[in-house]
Amino acid sequence: MPGTIAQPVSADRPPFLWRIYPYCYDLGVTRLAPYRQLQRDIVAAVRSHLRPRGHLDHARLDLLDVCCGTGNTLAALMRLSRHAQAVGLDFSPRMLDHAERKCRRLGRLRLIAAPAASGLSALPPSAFDVVTLCNGLYPLSDRLGVLREIRRVIRDDGVFVLTDPVAGARLSWLLRHHLEEEGPGGIGSLPLLFASAVLSRLIERHPAHRFCQVAEIKRLVHQAGFEVTSETASYGGANLLVACRPTAISSAAAGVSQSFHSVGAVHPGRDSGPRRGRARARDATL
Q1: Could you read off the pLDDT of 117-167 as tens digits, one per residue?
Q2: In the structure, what pLDDT confidence band is assigned to residue 52 with cuts at 50, 70 and 90?
Q3: Cα diameter, the chain
Q4: Bridge-based pairing state of the strands 239-246 and 226-234
Q5: Mean of all residue pLDDT scores within the chain
Q6: For 15-250, CATH number?
Q7: Residue ranges per domain, the chain?
Q8: 158 Cβ contact partners less than 8 Å away, ≥ 6 residues apart
Q9: Is this model's pTM higher than 0.90 or not?
Q10: What is the distance between the alpha carbons of residues 71 and 96, in angstroms, rounded to a whole number?
């Protein structure tokens, strides 16, 4: 299953798996038709929301990709606007190495290595036009808390796009979709599809992970302060993708943000605006 894990590596998560995962992800999963469908669906959901507001041509576009992984979604979104300013948040510095290489020339970029909850809590309120969370919900221990933090940092006229694997998805769905898209030429990449499925099962069986039912995902989004404006089955039917707009929240609920620089895992050398230094600050909590 595509995606990244939003929490720091713990003792019971095999370090070797997470060291090789970025390479497996970029060399394998991204070549599969279901994954390409997922990326198209994310971009289409964001584009349909932004086009009426003129963001794609004229205005600055502030993007946040939570659990950004190796940066595929972030790069696709940054290409929507010549005025993109993007923040990518992920627990894994190794993932962010890949994201930096893909995104640094596409606009102003900032990458933060931190767990989802603490990384979000240090971002200013009402700072982003677009927030995405791609396959990062299922490993979270406090799903609702993270979604409420996303509501805090998104602007009232912004769009939040969430996609996550749903409980009960079957490999046969992915196989059918891949072959329908690729035709006979897709047979050669079937080993990649099966390897991706095996990796997905290893991740899914971790005791801290739980794939949600569709109704539960929509309920969490509603409780966090969003209204679902569209939903679709993506990634060969294995994922639910919802586009959401914020609903009104009180200023008390929004809270007062910490400084943007208060996350210990901010990589100052990864602000790819005027300067592109390579110095890094590692987060002691990782």
Answers
A1: 999 999 999 999 999 999 999 889 899 999 999 999 999 999 999 999 888
A2: low
A3: 57
A4: antiparallel
A5: 75
A6: 3.40.50.150
A7: 15-250
A8: 128, 129, 130, 131, 245, 246
A9: no
A10: 7
Highest mean pLDDT among 19-33, 87-101, 175-189, 245-259 belongs to: 87-101
Q: Which residues are CB-neighbours of 115 under 8 A, at least 6 positions away?
A: 6, 7, 8, 91, 285
Tokens 């799903």 map to which residue? 143
